[in-house]
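Dear colleague,

Following up on yesterday's call, I've attached the two folding results inline so they're easy to grep. Please treat them as preliminary; we haven't cross-checked anything against experimental data yet. The first protein's sequence and structure tokens come first.
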Amino acid sequence: MAAPLAWPGVRSGEAPAPVAKQVEAYLRSEMQERRIPGLQVAVVRHGKIALLGAYGLANLQHQVPVTDHTVFSINSATKSFTGVAMMQLAEEGKVDLDAPVSRYLEGLPAPWQPVTLRQLLIHVSGIPNIVNQRSGKLGTEGGDDAAWAHIQTVPMDFPTGERYSYNQTNYLLLGKVIDKVSGMPFVRFITEGQFQVVGMPGSGFGDSRDVIPLKADPYRYSREGHLSPVYEEFPAFLRTGAGLNTTAKEVAHWIMALQQRKLLKRESSLSALWTPGKFNNGTSAPDALGWPAIRQSPHRAVAGIGGARSAFYVYPDDDLAVVILTNLRGADPEKMIDTVAGFYLPTLREVNGSGFAVYELRTELLKRGFEHAAEVFRLARQKHPAFQPSENDLIAWGYRLLEQHHPEKAIPIFKLGTDLYPRSSNAYDSLAEAYEAAADRASALSNYRRSLELDSKNDHAVARIKALQSATGGPQSK
């Protein structure tokens, strides 16, 4: 990274000082591990802001520190605000969420017309995506109008209600509905109906083409580990799905206003907002109305997640919410939030012990050396029999170490993964990649072969075995 990180420290309100210090230590560790330039956190507990934190740099080039007033892009977490807007219109009797979208919009393709507003909100519409998921750009050249005209000629992806497929066209249509039934552009409707009601002066819509006061610059790491700025564009007609910029403090106030009936009048409306939708067969879909449903029990949680860099979780039954915003694409703050929440809800740590387990392992290994990973885990397990990092957490940790060009540290972490999850093809494949990065071809081949034994369809292992054998002049024995 171009500059050292600054740590102004957590300002604690309701939270006891020991909890604030523990959260700060955890976030410092995660920022260093994930190489996050700048981050904000807010914790809401019992209807009050219990903790605010601002860390690191909003702009590396000019060494601008993050403050409570720094504005971050929240990308697709914008959809949670759109979900609230749709529920407000439903409360006013202006829309029926179970009515077809064709009741409110004319001239849609025939297959789209029966899709309900609720099915748009929960991503089970089957309507094709106007955005290329791989590139993040419109799926055709020629601008917004051309993309809109083209997507209406594309066949449905699947029968409505049969599958889940995250899709920006859904929220484009919801934006058009808001425009039509509210009598004003959706940006104005959300600004007047949410930002102004709550008191969110720093919140608004925009991207890299706009001048946004106090905006943190976004960054990303390349495959080679180089940090570079990100130029982001959110087309105006897609900003019900992405494009909102805000602060952790203002999101916290918004969550409190939502729970205090300042945005929705009825308890039933909030309950509906946070209830997962249904597929045609009656099973639960992954999303509620603009809010991914993270967990139903215990410690029910719904979320707003955007751009792999900003996220907030609400734990309705525990009177708790956690907001983490960053300026690094790939920071994945949603993977930190349950751990932060666990400092306030000790029983949540039992549900999501894996994230905290990785944190404790990393803290100890930084002192003792990564070569002691197996021993440190064994000692931790002796003290706490339930101590168990998840396979996904270990693999993600190992790959971060590889991205930082530390295969010698990644190998013990991946090896621990194979010890704990010996039937996982992915665990062995990941370990093989680390050995390959360390130029240990024999160990790489051995682990790729073990991965292939566990999953004969692992094309990556097949390709790497072939490449390594070719590089060494032919097959090698096991």
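Below is the second protein, in the same order (sequence, then structure):
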Amino acid sequence: MKFVRSKKLTFFNNKGGVGKTTLAYNVAVKFAEQGYKVCLVDLDPQCNLTRLCLGDQVFQANLFDSNPQGKSLYDVIEGIITAKGDIDLEVLPTKLSHQSDNLFLLEGSQNLSNYDDLLAGYYSVAASGNEAGYRQTSAISRFIGQLGMNLQFDLFIIDTSPTLGSLNRIILLDTDYFVVPINPDAFSLQGIENLGLKLEEWKKNWKNTGQALAGNIPNNLVLKGEGLFVGYILNSYNVYSKKLVKDHNKWASLIPERVKQYLSMRHARNGLVNSSYEQPISQIQDYGLIPARCQELSKAIFELDSSEVSSNHVGTLENIDKAKQEFTQLFINLQSILNQY
């Protein structure tokens, strides 16, 4: 292992369309390229990350498989949901066919929505100090923790749905770090406030209930509730001018102060309080139609060969080269943060 312990990094924004899945996948590939053993975790019931990793053909075949192999995250927690058992530690991540030999996926499932539906009740049971509730709410946390030890994963990169629902509550109460992708628009700006305040509410409630009443409950059953905000990623600057799209300049200029007020001051610590809002971890340009082509090929943007993209697409070579630069810098910045905190 390159880290002293397995770490969990969650990509989250309660606003959709900010590029969470694309960013999570590309960051995972970049870490894997640099020798880290990485497992992608698809905790969005829409399964966009799983589709990106496996390709549409394999993903669709798995949906209608009459003899599933028992390798999705739903299979991990089915015993919890049916009240017939606990987590299934026999489930293994899928090794992705990739030039890096150390990139894996814990596949998502549309059935995770069933777990989401039940989690509000599970959380209430845990918040009252009942051990059953702790087991139910910590199921995914315990599985990932055990998997990290057994298979020596450096990093779990978690993709989430764009909601403030019960599943995302336990994900964010369990994660080590979270990063927020942001588009420079009015909706994203409002979303920063909603996310920061809601996460603060979740942390305070859990500290005063589930954690306060844990008593002799084993530590691995109690979500730690200390997710650290490490920064934001700014998406969508213009491909050709290399500047933020003109209409977005106004909103981009307002982001740092909003991030400071609702995320950095509430969910960061030490040096990250300032660094997490003063500058984005990275700026990633709008790559137009290229991400859709990447999904067809199950490749990162910076892995594309120019022959794999339509010659009619203006700026293809420049975009691929730019992606290599942008995601390398994003990797360097995230690596530095994860090493320090």
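For the second protein, one point worth flagging: The radius of gyration is 20 Å.

Best wishes,
A.L.
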